[in-house]
């Protein structure tokens, strides 16, 4: 706790990083996974820190907690939101996992209505097959059917085939912004299927899904080939 008030930003950051329940590429801390409230006073001290690196650590710390205690992090976000641009950006990063999963409470904090009336049309693939190492090209159109300005969070998700026979879903953000009443916008996107150290592609059926404000609106499948 004392470190969170230290004059050096590196020490203040360490007070948050060193108490994270799920350090990346490291072992988790079972006690903090079970009872994360022990570290909340540290995060409270640092939430408005003048150093962005420190605030980013607070966001990552909250994201860790959200994986085991989403309601706790949502409660904190509701209390912290709206005080400054910097704090709102911290919360956006902290709730990224909940936002990607379509959590309606997380979406509502950032004014995204889960019941928004919107239509996806013309979801098209340039090709129904893509070779490993090449790109998938696709396009679609989003049309707001609201009678007023509406904030839309537009994402696509790919269900990747796995060697086990199961699938692994990855979320990619297209954009989020205000749409005017009955506004229609078309998008053209590409997704790389180059092999990566963090994602090994295999041949088989994959699924492309389009989400608006956390809700699945359209999908199509395609084949990945060698």
UniProtKB/TrEMBL annotation:
Amino acid composition bias (Basic and acidic residues), ranges on this chain: 1-10
Superkingdom, natural source: Bacteria
Annotated stretches, region: Disordered: 1-32
InterPro entries in alphabetical order: ARM-type_fold (IPR016024)
SUPFAM superfamilies assigned: ARM repeat
Protein name in UniProt: DNA alkylation repair enzyme domain protein
Species annotation: Leptospira interrogans serovar Copenhageni str. LT2050
Source lineage: Bacteria, Pseudomonadati, Spirochaetota, Spirochaetia, Leptospirales
């Amino acid at each position: 706790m004392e470190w969170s008030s230290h004059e050096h930003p590196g020490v203040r950051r360490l007070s948050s990083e060193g108490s994270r329940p799920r350090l990346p590429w490291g072992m988790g801390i079972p006690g903090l996974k079970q009872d994360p409230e022990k570290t909340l006073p540290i995060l409270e001290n640092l939430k408005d820190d003048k150093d962005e690196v420190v605030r980013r650590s607070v966001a990552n710390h909250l994201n860790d907690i959200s994986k085991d205690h989403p309601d706790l992090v949502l409660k904190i976000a509701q209390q912290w939101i709206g005080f400054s641009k910097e704090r709102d950006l911290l919360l956006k990063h902290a709730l990224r996992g909940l936002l990607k999963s379509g959590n309606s409470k997380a979406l509502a904090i950032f004014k995204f209505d889960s019941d928004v009336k919107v239509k996806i049309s013309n979801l098209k693939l340039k090709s129904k097959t893509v070779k490993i190492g090449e790109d998938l090209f696709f396009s679609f159109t989003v049309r707001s059917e609201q009678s007023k300005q509406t904030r839309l969070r537009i994402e696509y998700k790919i269900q990747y085939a796995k060697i086990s026979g199961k699938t692994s879903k990855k979320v990619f953000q297209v954009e989020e912004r205000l749409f005017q009443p009955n506004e229609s916008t078309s998008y053209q996107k590409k997704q790389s299927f180059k092999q990566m150290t963090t994602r090994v592609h295999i041949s088989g059926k994959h699924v492309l899904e389009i989400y608006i404000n956390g809700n699945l609106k359209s999908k199509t499948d395609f084949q990945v080939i060698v």
